[in-house]
Amino acid sequence: MKSISYFIRQKAFELGFNKVGFAKAEQLNNARNHLENWLKNGFNGEMYWIGKNISKRVNPLKVMPDAKSVVSVAINYYSSCKQVEHQDVAKVARYALKRDYHEIIGNRLQKLLKEIKLVEPMTQGTICVDHGPIMEKAWAVKSGIGWQGKHTITITREFGSWILLGELILNLELDFDKPAIDLCGDCTLCIDACPTQAIVEPYVLDANKCISYLTIEYKGAITSDLSSKMDNWIFGCDTCQEVCPWNLRYSKITNEIDFIPDENNNSITSFSIFTKNQFHEQFDNSPIKRIGYDRFKRNVQSVLTNIKGKSNE
User: Fold this and answer.
1) Comparing C-alpha atoms, which of 266, 221, 301 is closest to residue 94?
2) CB–CB of 252/78 below 8 Å?
3) 160: CB partners within 8 A, 6+ apart
């Protein structure tokens, strides 16, 4: 008889996940130490919620007391769409070029949990997709999905770092996978390429300088010294991923139509005169909607100011 672990893995693949891994539900001691040092240095910026419920972040048993396993899943979202290098074209992180992945992964994990309950009726599970107190990258490492690169993003052998993660905490004992091995070696290309020097040392990111943080999480005015280095990014930034050798060699075009963007028409000039209604119409199903109209306009204005500054040089 095939094990429940085999059943879950195969069902996950059938549902469209590209990688699946199992880890024992227990406290992540190394991750806790890293997180506490990171917070102590203030590298979380205005993301104050990260400092709350640390015990839950590092221990799934605090989230689900009868947890025995953490199932990590990953979806490849890479598309052949290239960021157009033109002063009037806005840049958006690849994961946000089409449909919001939270809904896609969340719905599939719901289906996976339902399938598991059909064969194991007493199963209880908690689903996490980039929300709640779960350190998804640490669990991706522990379950063998991939290792955490020096830019702090999860890298896989098969797809590079162009993956999106989700977790399913279960009260089932599974066959655990071996943790992923760090294969970054001596490479520092991601650190060297960061426009704002946000990667202050290998595996340590200062969010206060990170373009992704500034364009998505940060609510204040972006200072000129940082906005001048933002290029045309209005939502997120892929610079550190674009130079990664694992991405340059192993990227594969996704089979997910929901991650393949429409023709790029992200004109900075057009965005600068967007009304609130236009913003919601264009980005209703996109991750971009979460920053809201005001931050969107702030980001566009930062790029416009940057472009104007360059033209006056």
Assistant:
1) 266
2) yes
3) 78, 241, 244, 246, 247, 248, 249, 250, 251
3-state secondary structure the chain: CCCHHHHHHHHHHHCCCCEEEEEECCCCHHHHHHHHHHHHCCCCCCCHHHHCCHHHHHCHHHCCCCCCEEEEEEEECCCCCCCCCCCCECEECHHHCCCCHHHHHHHHHHHHHHHHHHHCCCCCEEEECCCCCCCHHHHHHHCCCCEECCCCCEEECCCECCEEEEEEEECCCCCCCCCCCCCCCCCCHHHHHCCCCCEEECCEECHHHCHHHHHHCCCCCCCHHHHCCCCCEEECCCHHHHCCHHHHHHCCCCCCHHHCCCCCCCEHHHHHCCCHHHHHHHHCCCHHHHHHHHHHHHHHHHHHHHHHHHHCC
Q: How confident is residue 1, by pLDDT bands cut at 50, 70 and 90?
A: very low
What is the arithmetic mean of pLDDT over 188-194?
98
Distances in Å between the Cα of 221 and the Cα atoms of 128, 165, 226 are 31, 30, 10
- What Å distances lie between residue 142 and 4, 29, 181, 268, CA to CA? 20, 12, 10, 41
Is 262 tagged catalytic?
no
Q: Shortest CA distance to 163 belongs to which of 18, 300, 12?
A: 18
Q: Provide the CB-side half-sphere exposure for 170 (13 A, CA).
A: 30
Q: Tokens for 59, please give them.
A: 């221990």
Q: Which of 66, 88, 100, 130 is catalytic?
A: 130
Residue-wise pLDDT tens digits, 7-63: 999 999 999 999 999 999 999 999 999 999 999 999 999 999 999 889 999 999 999
pTM above 0.85, yes or no: yes
